[in-house]
Amino acid sequence: MTATLLTGISELWTLDPALEDPQALPAGATEGQVIADAALVIDSGRIAWTGPGAQAPAADDQVDLGGRAVLPGWVDSHTHLVFAGDRSGEFEARMAGESYAAGGIAVTTDATRAASDEELLALLRRRIVEAARSGTTCLETKTGYGLTVDEEARAARLLAQLHAAGEIDEITYLGAHLVPAEYQGRAQEYVDLVAGPMLEAVRDAAGPALRWIDVFCEDGVFDPEQSARVLHAGIEAGLGLRVHGNQLGRTGGAQLACELGAASVDHLNHLDPSDIDALAGTASLPVAPGAAPGQLSVQQGPTVATVLPACDLSTRAPLAPARSLLDAGAQLAIASNCNPGTSYTSSMAFCVATAVLQMRLTLAEAVRAATRGGALALRRDDVGHLGVGARADLHVLDAPAAIHLAYRPGMPLTHAVWRRGKQII
Ligand SMILES: N=CN[C@@H](CCC(=O)O)C(=O)O
Ligand SMILES: [Zn+2]
């Protein structure tokens, strides 16, 4: 393998965990984690060296980035990319005053069931490229628009194919996204299916690439008891837990996630102080090595509070209290929640700008939440930072400083992207 030296970096956001006080509360970048006038060496797909440009070692190749800022690629820890069709009509009605209701999931489920494998794969690939074009280099995505044993297994199989090709990083089983029409009035039977034969079929289809199980814990969808049943089945299967919680009301998802040691609870539009305290109370739970290099154990660690700023805007929901969560000491992640119902964007740059402009995070806090925060929410330590040994996932901005992400919102600020050491944009 050849080593490549990148020079001309005006600001290098390494967010290097090795430079962090493990006792310190999670916050913005700390000293040493942003290097001015920097250089970086990539070797064998990994970061081999970072430091001041004046001290850069020799390498086989050299690329001058012309005074641009470099960040770790975004880690998008929450997307729903396996879908066909769109719901622009529902979105328009919402902008005219309708509220979001979970029932729209059934519309996408019908369209997804009707699409061929080839169509779904082509849609997935297009969405992955779209995400990469705005700097995303690590992606989680979910099943959840199949909602039968065969359709959930099909989604898992397609995702495993992309996982094997290195195009996505994490796969989540979300059979508990909605009780489908065929099971109306028989929710408990559907929960039994999700926790039993459907889970088995999805595990068989995805193989070891499947690490996560998720549930939409909300009034009218799955209540905390039903959600717990699904999540316990996931634990027995060796999967890590994720929860869609407290999106439409204060309906127990955040507390359940903390109680069961979920890696993340996402949405969080309706929290009271005791929910925030519960999340903060998990912040310093220790992590442990996982099954493969770069992975941490799915069973141990904080329950990350994942906020979804684009979704909050698109559903006109009260913004998740990211500022209060950080102030209380919770671990925070920002994700896109790209899906056709509530957040049809994969732009993490847009989410970061919104977190700064509307949720009152500092730029450093928002960048960290969209990189290291996402990695922790996926219980990984190989992405979300540019410390030596990390995956060489780089986001080069067409700007001299990362603050431009919020200062120039909506502008196409992604200049180049490296994923696993290869330039893809
Ligand atoms: N809230 C649940 N699931 C998705 C929305 C799915 C849809 O409406 O299609 C979300 O995370 O927002
Ligand atoms: Zn979601």
TrEMBL record:
<dbReference type="GO" id="GO:0019556">
    <property type="term" value="P:L-histidine catabolic process to glutamate and formamide"/>
</dbReference>
<feature type="binding site">
    <location>
        <position position="87"/>
    </location>
    <ligand>
        <name>4-imidazolone-5-propanoate</name>
    </ligand>
</feature>
<dbReference type="GO" id="GO:0019557">
    <property type="term" value="P:L-histidine catabolic process to glutamate and formate"/>
</dbReference>
<feature type="binding site">
    <location>
        <position position="80"/>
    </location>
    <ligand>
        <name>Zn(2+)</name>
    </ligand>
</feature>
<feature type="binding site">
    <location>
        <position position="145"/>
    </location>
    <ligand>
        <name>4-imidazolone-5-propanoate</name>
    </ligand>
</feature>
<comment type="function">
    <text>Catalyzes the hydrolytic cleavage of the carbon-nitrogen bond in imidazolone-5-propanoate to yield N-formimidoyl-L-glutamate. It is the third step in the universal histidine degradation pathway.</text>
</comment>
<feature type="binding site">
    <location>
        <position position="80"/>
    </location>
    <ligand>
        <name>Fe(3+)</name>
    </ligand>
</feature>
<feature type="binding site">
    <location>
        <position position="78"/>
    </location>
    <ligand>
        <name>Zn(2+)</name>
    </ligand>
</feature>
<feature type="binding site">
    <location>
        <position position="244"/>
    </location>
    <ligand>
        <name>Zn(2+)</name>
    </ligand>
</feature>
<protein>
    <recommendedName>
        <fullName>Imidazolonepropionase</fullName>
        <ecNumber>3.5.2.7</ecNumber>
    </recommendedName>
</protein>
<feature type="binding site">
    <location>
        <position position="244"/>
    </location>
    <ligand>
        <name>Fe(3+)</name>
    </ligand>
</feature>
<comment type="similarity">
    <text>Belongs to the metallo-dependent hydrolases superfamily. HutI family.</text>
</comment>
<feature type="binding site">
    <location>
        <position position="339"/>
    </location>
    <ligand>
        <name>N-formimidoyl-L-glutamate</name>
    </ligand>
</feature>
<keyword id="KW-0862">Zinc</keyword>
<dbReference type="InterPro" id="IPR005920">
    <property type="entry name" value="HutI"/>
</dbReference>
<feature type="binding site">
    <location>
        <position position="145"/>
    </location>
    <ligand>
        <name>N-formimidoyl-L-glutamate</name>
    </ligand>
</feature>
<feature type="binding site">
    <location>
        <position position="177"/>
    </location>
    <ligand>
        <name>4-imidazolone-5-propanoate</name>
    </ligand>
</feature>
<keyword id="KW-0408">Iron</keyword>
<keyword id="KW-0963">Cytoplasm</keyword>
<dbReference type="InterPro" id="IPR032466">
    <property type="entry name" value="Metal_Hydrolase"/>
</dbReference>
<keyword id="KW-0369">Histidine metabolism</keyword>
<dbReference type="InterPro" id="IPR006680">
    <property type="entry name" value="Amidohydro-rel"/>
</dbReference>
<feature type="binding site">
    <location>
        <position position="341"/>
    </location>
    <ligand>
        <name>N-formimidoyl-L-glutamate</name>
    </ligand>
</feature>
<feature type="binding site">
    <location>
        <position position="342"/>
    </location>
    <ligand>
        <name>4-imidazolone-5-propanoate</name>
    </ligand>
</feature>
<dbReference type="GO" id="GO:0005506">
    <property type="term" value="F:iron ion binding"/>
</dbReference>
<dbReference type="GO" id="GO:0005737">
    <property type="term" value="C:cytoplasm"/>
</dbReference>
<comment type="pathway">
    <text>Amino-acid degradation; L-histidine degradation into L-glutamate; N-formimidoyl-L-glutamate from L-histidine: step 3/3.</text>
</comment>
<keyword id="KW-0378">Hydrolase</keyword>
<dbReference type="GO" id="GO:0008270">
    <property type="term" value="F:zinc ion binding"/>
</dbReference>
<feature type="binding site">
    <location>
        <position position="337"/>
    </location>
    <ligand>
        <name>Zn(2+)</name>
    </ligand>
</feature>
<keyword id="KW-0479">Metal-binding</keyword>
<dbReference type="Pfam" id="PF01979">
    <property type="entry name" value="Amidohydro_1"/>
</dbReference>
<feature type="domain" description="Amidohydrolase-related">
    <location>
        <begin position="70"/>
        <end position="399"/>
    </location>
</feature>
<dbReference type="GO" id="GO:0050480">
    <property type="term" value="F:imidazolonepropionase activity"/>
</dbReference>
<feature type="binding site">
    <location>
        <position position="78"/>
    </location>
    <ligand>
        <name>Fe(3+)</name>
    </ligand>
</feature>
<dbReference type="InterPro" id="IPR011059">
    <property type="entry name" value="Metal-dep_hydrolase_composite"/>
</dbReference>
<feature type="binding site">
    <location>
        <position position="247"/>
    </location>
    <ligand>
        <name>4-imidazolone-5-propanoate</name>
    </ligand>
</feature>
<feature type="binding site">
    <location>
        <position position="337"/>
    </location>
    <ligand>
        <name>Fe(3+)</name>
    </ligand>
</feature>
